[in-house]
Write the structure tokens for this entry.
Amino acid sequence: MKMSESSKNGSPGPTALFWSFLTVGISGFGGVLPFARRMLVERRRWLDEAQFAETLALCQTLPGPNIVNVSIVIGGRFAGPLGALAAVSGLLGAPVALVLVFASLYGRWGEVGRAPAMLAGLGAAACGLVVATAVKMAIPLVRTRPASAAPFVALAFAAVGIVRLPLVWVVLALAPISIAVAWSRRA
Amino acid sequence: MKQGVLGDLAVQFVMLSLVAFGGANAVVPEIHRVAVGLRHWTTDAEFARLFAIANAAPGPNVMISTLVGWKAAGIPGAIVATLAMCGPTCLLTYFISRGWERWRLTRLGAAIGAGLTPVTVGFVAASALVLARGADTSWRLAIVTLATALVAWRTKLNPLWCLAAAAGLGLAGALG
């Protein structure tokens, strides 16, 4: 055994949860979900593939950042409130500290020399990553549920992206109808 | 004054976290609407830069809220925004996940999941548009966005390479 705390049956304690989620937090760029899956399912084997999929489905249904929710659910399941707290602080602590270092560098040097041009390039690429995420999410959805999903994708996009309505209104207006459609479709 | 900004940050981020279905990317348009449109904590172009910094640093996407908080009220603002964005939803998740095993299998549970997905996908697409408005101020930058999107969509390349390449092009003066 390489790692004594990663026994398949024993529940990890708060310390193991903290360090595991810390490594997840600092290893991902532009989203850490794939790294969380690798740590939980492949390396530590705290969950199997199906359990991870279920946990993720729950966390995507609830409001809040998905990966933060995943850390709460896993931490809570294995070690109660303290485990949840350990997992989420492991996940967020180092990245938040690091991004603030980046922020102060930006505050100090952001307007100097070629820095604005570099940041402009970085910003354009970061935006491209979001375009790709949207495309990757939309294609299978629209393909499998053209009538019941596509109109809601389009309406949500237009209401928030073009008309710039507050998100709350759009969620309150669209989600009940979309859920009702999904409900009747399964009847 | 600063106390007021911190309170305002807390209220705004708690409110938007509660409708943040589909993760941090889905809520970017709302953060932008509040931070740029309503409160003037930052500008359109700078918002795109902050989003880029959040992406270039390791960690979850939620860090855009940390940076907006930092812009509004320095380090205390960053901490308040991050806690407000994560705290209440963490509590909610903690308590709901306890009853989940039974609830998940119900027809209603499945319908809620299936019904929320298209709405959040629309929000992520809206995020891309909102960011593009701030980021793509020239046709060269728009090409960088499209090229990155294509690479990230069609290949399994680590996104960090795209970010590094684009930053390098900018540094070399090729995007001016």
